[in-house]
Structures are given as C-alpha cells and as structure tokens.
Amino acid sequence: QLQSALQNFVTQYNALNAALAQQVGQTGGLLAGDAIVQAAQNSLRQVATFVTPGASIQSLSDLGISLDNTGNMTLDSTVLGSLTSGQVASAFTYLGSATTGLGGLAQQFQSITDPYSGMIQAEQANYVTTDQHLQSQISTLNARVSLMQSNLSAQLEVADALQAQLASQQGELTATIQSLNYSAFVATIATSGTVG
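Above: the chain sequence. Below: its structure as tokens.
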C-alpha cells in the first residue's frame, strides 16, 4: 500500500513538474514568468526537499525517491522493501496528514488553487477586469471612429454642394463677362461707325 501510494505521488509530482516546465524560459507558454508558475515551482521544491530531522525517515530519499537533473522523481522500490517495521511507521509519520508532515505542504498548493481565494482565481478575476476594460475602450474608440466618419461624410456632402454651387456661379460669371465684352465690342463698333 505504501509503495502504491508513493508511486502515485511520484507520478502526480512529475506530471505537475512537466506542466510547469512548459511555462518556463524563452520557449515557455502563455504563463511564462507568471507568479502562479513561480509559486507552484517553489511549492514543488519544498515538497522535494522536505525534511523531518531526527526521525529514522527524514526525507524522500530515505523512501527511495530521487530527483534527476530535470526535477523528475523516480521511486526505487527496493529501498521500500528493505525498511524495518519501525522505519515504516516513521515513513507514515513523515508523510503525515492534511495538516502535518509532507501532507501539510498541500496547504501551500491550496493557496494557489482555492476556487475562492487562490492565486489562480485572483488572476482570473484580474484578467476578466482587464478584458472588460479593454472591451470598453474598444467600444469607445469604435464610437469615436463612427462619429468621425459621420462628420467626414457630412463635410464631404457640404463640400460637394459647395463645389457644384461654385461651378454654377463660375459659369454665370463667365457668361456675364462674355456678355459685357460683347456689349463693349458692339458699342465700340457703333461709335466708330458714327465717327466715320
């Protein structure tokens, strides 16, 4: 039973470690550099290095659990098989409960995952607030653009009407000038005929 529980612990630990590793570094995912990832990694490190001084089972290595250079755990079942009954009892004390021993560290993960007050919930609430603020800004900008487009369309209509009016007035003015020139020409001829 102890070996099965420890193997399950190792499997779950490695799965979480791998998921966090994907969010770290230059090739990390969308949560790269996020405080939640850093907090979870710190909690994992505390789990991996948890020690109870003075007991016959003081650390995970005493239970046959070791870490490789990527942070993954492996369980050596032969170590468990060689434990005395006293060491087995000490192992259960080391593992503890929901509030003691290694199990007590679960409270740190609770501070991250709690659906009401955890870090993830708080960050999601901030994301929602930020998204709503951005949506409001986008709506405001869209309204301004629509108003500018309406004003511009109205100005273009006025400009078109003014252009047509100026063209009409220009035509009338040209006709008037031509008429005046013709009248002046006729008058000049008439005067010249009289003088002759």
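Strands lie at 65-67, 73-75.
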